[in-house]
Amino acid sequence: MSSTRPTVAEIERAIRTIPDFPNPGIQFKDITPLLADARLFAGAIDLLTERFEPGSVDAVVGIDARGFIFAAAAAVRLRAGFVPVRKKGKLPYLTHEQDYALEYGHATVAIHVDALKPGSRVLLIDDLLATGGTAAAAVQLVRKLGAQILEAGFLIELKFLHGRDQLSDIPIRSLVEY
Ligand code: AMP
């Protein structure tokens, strides 16, 4: 394994677009080729966490399900805890829930009521920012627990969907933009 850090262009080349998955009209961004490449995966985690020193973040909150992969790796690198925001009905203990709108219908995400201490410093991570509904719901859950979001990080941002408008009061870091 080479130790040179990959460029964003190399990371972008490892993301595969699958047309009409899982529904017609969706251009699905498949990150599995990137994850399978040790250098690119480590480089993506380095880029997502480079603004923070180990110990400067208390918890990395990851969003169900692909967000867990990046958030857990970022948490280990930053010597921070990992906290999952999951789809409703998956977490076993007491939860707070947050509804959000989808193109058709709505969805609900949840967090354990004791997952974060008030005042704790949180980095929020997901694989992809699209309309921003999922991330905005996760932000509300983190804030319900009294924690402070330092930054929201995404491997991919679909700029044309303007998801950042839903996260306007949070610094956003995205690596690859479409
Ligand atoms: P949104 O709430 O619209 O910002 O959608 C973000 C969530 O949906 C993320 O957790 C992504 O994993 C997933 N997602 C949305 N659009 C795509 C896409 N084109 N390719 C892959 N994942 C997507």
Structure description:
- There is one protein chain.
- The chain has 178 residues and is of the alpha/beta class.
- The chain has a single domain (53-177), classed as 3-Layer(aba) Sandwich (Rossmann fold), CATH 3.40.50.
- The protein has helices at residues 8-13, 32-35, 38-49, 66-78, 133-144; strands at 16-19, 27-30, 59-63, 81-87, 95-101, 106-112, 121-129, 148-157, 172-177.
- Strands 5-6-4-3-7-8-9 form a seven-stranded mixed β-sheet, sandwiched between helices. A two-stranded antiparallel ribbon has the order 1-2.
- The chain is globular and about 40 Å long.
- The protein binds adenosine monophosphate.
- Adenosine monophosphate is lined by residues 26-29, 63, 66-67, 126-135, 163.
Which terms summarize this structure?
178 residues, alpha/beta, Rossmann fold, 7-stranded mixed β-sheet, 5 helices, binds adenosine monophosphate
Q: Strand order, biggest sheet?
A: 5-6-4-3-7-8-9
User: The CATH topology is what?
Assistant: Rossmann fold
Q: What about the largest sheet?
A: 7 strands, mixed
Helix-strand string? HEEHHEHEEEEHEE
Counting structural domains, the number is: 1
Query: How big a fraction of the residues is strand?
Result: 25-35%
Compounds present? adenosine monophosphate
Average pLDDT reading = 97
- The residue fraction in helices comes out at 25-40%
Assign the CATH class.
Alpha Beta
Shape: globular
Number of helices: 5
User: What is the annotated CATH architecture?
Assistant: 3-Layer(aba) Sandwich
**Uncertain parts:** none
* Count of individual beta strands: 9
Q: Give the N-to-C terminal Cα separation.
A: 29 Å
Q: How large, in whole angstroms, is the Cα Rg?
A: 16 Å
Q: What structural category arises from helix and sheet content? A: alpha/beta
